[in-house]
Write a structure and sequence with these properties.
The chain is mainly alpha-helical. The chain is built from nine helices and two strands, in the order H-E-H-H-H-H-H-H-H-E-H.
Length: 189
Amino acid sequence: MVPVLLLMSLMLRCSTACTLDWSASWRIDSQRTDTLQLLKKMKIMSVLSCLQDRTDFRCPWKKGHITQGKQREEATCCYSEMLRQVLQLFRPQATRDAWPERTLGQLLTSLLSGLEVLEGTAEQTPPCLPTFAMAIRTYFLRISRYLEGKGYSPCSWEVVRAEMQVALSTFPVPAERSSRKRGSSVQES
């Protein structure tokens, strides 16, 4: 009986949409914009010249899998997991050889600032659902294996850089908590 109650309480907690206060939401939007601009700035060659290196990493949130309704709301709780994985991907020594140190440092700083904002609001938001967390980790594992298989070539990094631009721009981020939602939750308490 206890495991069933524990599971139900986790499900109820996870079904709550991830929302942030206005300040945190604004900082996440700003961080995401900065990160996307830095990724664009890191472009080292035309993606067209690397067409033979392209691959489908099977991004779990791109093709409509978690872009609507309740799944989208639950996926927003996983934005910090997504940032951690991007940060991990760009940390190896091979990355430092691919791009200028200054730009790479700015990218890592931007990703860390996003994580700090989200971790500062961790007690207000439900945890990432294990299925989404596993899908994110599997996606980044495919990317890491791809880079290793290509010997961290300039084209492979360009393909991954372009993939990260799309992945970050399409991942659902926690929304701003509206005053109406806050008002109704206060009345319910």
